Amino acid sequence: MNHRRSPLLVVEVVSESTKSTDYRAKRAEYSVLDIPEYWICDPLKERVTVCTLLEGWYEAAEFAEENPIESTLFSELRVPNRQILNP
User: Fold this and answer.
1) Within a domain: residue 3?
2) Phi/psi at 19 (5° precision)
3) Which helix (H) or strand (E) holds 14?
4) What is the pLDDT at residue 3?
5) Which of 20, 30, 31, 33 fits a 20 to 30 Å CA distance from 55?
6) Is residue 1 one of the residues assigned to a domain?
7) Is 52 helix (H, G, I), strand (E, B) or coil?
8) Number of domains in the chain
9) Which residues constitute the domain of residue 54?
């Protein structure tokens, strides 16, 4: 019997051609897979959206400019948005 586990975190990088899929369709796909956290890194809008799975739905928190990204999975992580978007 094969017991596959879902990843703890998925990170999507938005491009002009994928923005609709990254913001909408992927949320539904990832919630069905029970992925606890999903990040949308959007260099077009210069923000990172952290989506946390709560009772089957994602709650979203946006981080822009110098705001450090906050993660429920990685509580000690304190990385400014700009470091993720502009390494």
Assistant:
1) no
2) -60, -40
3) none
4) 56
5) 20
6) no
7) strand
8) 1
9) 9-85
Residue 76 identity: E
Q: Quick check: 33 and 6 in contact, CB under 8 A?
A: yes
Q: Does pLDDT of 81 surpass 80?
A: no
Inside any domain, residue 41 = yes
Over the chain, what is the mean pLDDT? 87
C-alpha to C-alpha distance for 36 and 29, rounded to whole angstroms? 12
3-state secondary structure of 21: helix
Answer yes or no: are the C-beta atoms of 35 and 64 closer than 8 Å: no
Residue type present at position 34 = D
pTM for this entry: 0.84
State the greatest distance between any 2 C-alpha atoms of the chain, in Å, as a whole number.
47
Q: Is residue 2 situated within a structural domain?
A: no
Beta strand 68-69 with 47-54 is unpaired
Query: Cα 56 to chain center, whole Å?
Result: 15
